[in-house]
Write a structure and sequence with these properties.
It is a single chain. It is built from eight helices and 15 strands. It has 364 residues and is α+β, with helices and mostly antiparallel strands. The protein has two domains: 2-62, no CATH class; 92-363, monomeric porin ompg (Porin). The strands form two sheets. Strands 1-4-5-6-7-8-9-10-12-13-14-15 form a twelve-stranded antiparallel barrel. The protein has a two-stranded antiparallel sheet with strand order 2-3.
Amino acid sequence: MTTRCSISHAAGRRWVCAVVLGSLCIALSPAAASGPADSFGSPGVITLAQAKVDEGAVAAEEAPPASEAPVAMTRGQVETEEAVEEKPFPISLGVSYYLLSDYVFRGINFSEYAGEGREKPNHQLTVSVTWDSGDFGRFGFDTFFEWYAAQKKLNPYGGQNLQEADYSLRWSYYVEPIATDATLGFTFYTFPNLAKLLRTDRSRGNNNNDRTQEWYLKLDHNDAWMWKWLFPENEDGVLNPSFFLAQDVGVGAGHVWMEMGISHDFEVVENLTITPGYLIAIDGGVLRRYLGRSHADTFRLAYDQWSLNVTYDLTKVLHLPKWAGTLSVSGLLYFNNALGTAEDDGSINDEFYGGMSVNWGWGG
């Protein structure tokens, strides 16, 4: 009995070993490696979905923490981020050259003389520098120069064709609640070589009439809100009403000048814009002070003006890079219709004049 038991125990150990070894072989066989057994106990085949789940689990284990993982951005977010990175340069420059048939300022033609006949050209140049400070508005400095080809006919003492040089300081601020751009400025007007001419006029003498100064206020309003019933998607001004007030504190002795106007830009084809305009000018006595006449303490209508500006943007046509700025050319036409006593007393006359301009801008 004892021998049988020993044999049986030995056989049992061999049988257990065989079972363990067989299980290991099955576990290491290719069929077992292919996936878990199905509900019937036969080796199952892994599906595509299961493979994706397993790959996802592995990727999740290998992925960095959420704080370190890259975040995907939409196209709008990318454009917004680029816009933030590419902030516009706060300083802008502008240069414009004008070639005009006449130089008319506040209704007075400063380029006419007796027997002129054929028009002599007027060359004008404006240079502007503007700094955008952000929340505190925009600060600027402007210059204006006027050369008249027949200046010696007007002032034989000059010896040159430079008729006028002006300098202006300004501050602009956009008042968002009323959609209005407000500009406050101060301008110095100088007329080189005019003092010697004025000395020949005993009624004036040498009283510094060869220069003057004025402060001014200009309001430009975006009236798109008024037209929402007709153009619900439009955000640009339709009539773009403007108001200008200037008080001459030099020769004008505190008298004022006012203008009220409207205009609209029509982009007829790509890069070509036509802008008709209309304004009414009101003389608060400054014209009579300029001309040395009496009754300067009254207000009157001076003239109304019809204008047309045709501008072609050459920037895209010339493929100018951003660093080179913008370039455009304009055709200009003006008609001043003198009104009331300003015409009756000969202060101003009807004027029809025009010309062209070349304009360059950079920055901003």
